[in-house]
Structures are given as structure tokens and as C-alpha cells.
Amino acid sequence: MDTEAIARERIDRLRELARAATVDGDDERARRYVRRARRIAERNRLALPREFTRFTCDRCDAYLRPGANARVRLQDGHVVVTCDCGGQARYPYD
Question: Do 55 and 69 contact (CB within 8 A), yes or no?
């Protein structure tokens, strides 16, 4: 296996662990997993997967769960995801 494949596999695993930690209520552990995954992506010059970037806050590194620690709203052609920290992300939809 090359290093890129190993890094992608590890990022996917960290995403799963961050999701599980958020479900269990351990937000700080989820933040550590998110930060570690971002650092792995930076070191290997990889883009994070879409499902990872859509469910993490760029401001506080929280793994977002709509209804629990994130608010999701639809506005004129885009989705607005607001974290509890106040950070917002906007994504277009068709």
C-alpha cells in the first residue's frame, strides 16, 4: 500500500470515530479526531472527503450532528449549517 491510500484509510477511520464519539456525547474526543484527520490530510497533501468537510466545523473542529450541536437551514439555493460556536458553512444545492 502506498502512503496516500494509508492516509485516506486513516482519515475515514477517524471520521467514523469522531461520529461515534459525538453520538456518545464526548465532544472533546471528537474534536481531537477531527484535528488529527485534518493534520494527516495536510501532511499528505490530500483533500478531505466531502462527507468529512460537510460534517465538521472549520471554526471549532466539532463534528456536527444536525439537531444536537448544529442547525441546518435551507435558503435560496444553498444549505446553511450553523454550529453551536456560531460558525457557518454554506453549500449549494440544485
Answer: no
Nearest to 81 by CA among 67, 71, 93, 94: 71
The burial class, CB within 10 Å (0-12 / 13-18 / 19+), for 34 is buried
Question: Which amino acid, 28?
Answer: E
- The residue among 52, 62, 53, 50 whose CA lies nearest residue 87 is 62
pLDDT tens digit sequence for 37-64 = 999 999 999 999 999 999 999 999 999 9
Q: How far apart are CA 30 and CA 9, in angstroms?
A: 17
Contact 66, 51 (CB under 8 A): no
